Amino acid sequence: MSITALILEASFVVQLVMLMLLAFSVIGWMIIFQRRKIIQQAGQQTLQFEDRFWSGVDLARLYQEVAARANNASGIEKIFHAGFKEFARLHGRPGLAQQQVLEASYRAMRVVHSRQLDKLEQNLSWLATIGSISPYVGLFGTVWGIMNAFIGLGAVQQATLAMVAPGIAEALIATAMGLFAAIPAVIAYNRFAHQVEKVDNQYQNFMDELLAILQRQSSKEAKEQKAESA
């Protein structure tokens, strides 16, 4: 008896379990392909922008370049745009100390950083859910199928292996489908979580580095103003 025939002849509950697991598998693979593209793109864009940032380009010029394509800017570019914009807005304003300006700039970057991280982590919880519950859903289908097989076996006087084998086989298909849905989801979730953590570290390191540069620039300008006034 073929696997297709076993599925078609399975009980309604087992078929419902198989249909649910098939839906889990389809949803999981859709999320995997979507997240894979987005997360890899974020990592590549981060490296490209960091190369541009450390190439010696003037920060004001780089800010104008990012602002010109703000709608299509990458995550790290939006973080830079928010931080430098806040710094430029508050820098030199009377009554504001250097530390206050830097803290405001860092807060602006933190807000954008949080939003970009949420975008990268979007739907990853679905992968974790699919990976954790699919084996149990499949196990439920297996238990139900085996239970029905033994109930049918108890209704006859002479039992044979040929009578119980199809019921057990269809039940085990549910377990196999549960594992088929769960294993890719778990592997993808762990891999994506690691990649998102890596991009997050790059974002945080960049924020600290940009803040240090802005602090040095602000201190240098303050010394120059003192020298001119003296």
UniProtKB/TrEMBL annotation:
Gene Ontology biological process: bacteriocin transport; cell division; protein import
Transmembrane segment boundaries: 12-32, 124-147, 167-189
GO CC terms: plasma membrane
Keywords: Cell cycle, Cell division, Cell inner membrane, Cell membrane, Membrane, Transmembrane, Transmembrane helix
A Pfam family per the record: MotA_ExbB
Domain MotA/TolQ/ExbB proton channel span(s) in chain numbering: 74-204
Membrane topology, record value: Multi-pass membrane protein
Top-level taxon of the source organism: Bacteria
Location of the protein in the cell: Cell inner membrane; Cell membrane
Subunit structure: The Tol-Pal system is composed of five core proteins: the inner membrane proteins TolA, TolQ and TolR, the periplasmic protein TolB and the outer membrane protein Pal. They form a network linking the inner and outer membranes and the peptidoglycan layer.
Physiological role: Part of the Tol-Pal system, which plays a role in outer membrane invagination during cell division and is important for maintaining outer membrane integrity.
PANTHER family per the UniProt record, alphabetical: PROTEIN TOLQ (PTHR30625), TOL-PAL SYSTEM PROTEIN TOLQ (PTHR30625:SF3)
Protein family per UniProt: Belongs to the ExbB/TolQ family.
Protein name as annotated: Tol-Pal system protein TolQ
Gene assigned in the entry: tolQ
